[in-house]
Amino acid sequence: MKKILIIINGFQLFHNDLNYAIHLAKTEKAVLHGLFVHNLKLQEVEGYAFPSDINLTDTNFSIESEREELVKLQSAQVKLFEDICSSGGVSFKSQLIHENFLDALIYNSAFADLVIINAEVDTTYYSLNSLLTNLYCPVLLLSKEVGIFDKIIIAYDGHSSSIHAMRQFAYLFTSWHHLPVYLVSVLPQNIREIEYKEQVQEWLSLQFPDAHINVLKGDVKEELPLFISLNQDAIVVMGAFGRSSLSRFFKESLANVVLAKAKTALFITHT
Questions:
Q1: How does residue 50 score in pLDDT terms, banded at 50, 70 and 90?
Q2: Which residue numbers delimit the UspA domain (predicted)?
């Protein structure tokens, strides 16, 4: 049985993300493990210049009472997660993370097959770039209001990273091999064919019966998002060669461009 992690930051539990995760877990017969990240270490009257003045008001304020309210809110959020998973018919697990956020998330990824993250939520407790660079398993980045995918787009550049990504996706999501697959490569004007064309065609035919190779010309940051936006409700498969390259990949913002322009789900691996 596979294991899928979904990271929930603070109180930002988006029903669309959870429905997406439940759909994947149910189809692949996977356990859905919710990681709830929240800092309960409050500072006394944070942001108030004259904390002693609180004693002069009628407000019964204390760090402990506020912490208790946060615990109640988080407990309610966890229960909502568990209720939705239960009604969706998937196996689930809940885990609270209150400290060492980045290390805890990375550690959990070592024992998972996929991590689901909303790319647009607040990540106050850790650096999203650091997390993506150090995770031990593939990542599924979601933009807000992304629909359940009914087609697959593989971004292929001939490098081993993109080959690794499409192989990982095929082996992880065995229930989706019947969907239409578009292998997209953006090439310079003077190059006509993708690298390893014969081998790629053979591999695609063995994995996906409805596969197509699309060669585009121009700037990858323009052409790839445009192709994706014309094929709504697709999941996009990308690779990054090594952890340092994955870090550069996000700093160069190709993933952000794709997510912003196409409103899609982005499956990413690094070797």
A1: very low
A2: 149-268
Let me know: does 269 contact 240? Beta carbons within 8 Å: yes
β-bridge pairing 92-97 and 151-155: unpaired
**Of 91, 113, 128, 114, nearest to 9 (Cα)?**
128
Residues facing 216 on adjacent strands: 186
Does domain 3-41+68-142 fall into CATH 3.40.50.620? yes
Q: For the whole model, what pTM was predicted?
A: 0.85
Class for domain 151-270, per CATH?
alpha beta
Within the chain, which residue ranges are assigned CATH 3.40.50.620?
3-41+68-142, 151-270
Mean pLDDT of 78-88: 94
* Averaged confidence pLDDT in the chain: 84
CB-count exposure of residue 216 (10 Å: 0-12, 13-18, 19+): middle
Q: How far apart are the C-alpha atoms of 244 and 241, rounded to whole Å? A: 8
Q: What single-letter amino acid sits at 108?
A: N
Confidence of residue 248 (pLDDT cuts 50, 70, 90): low
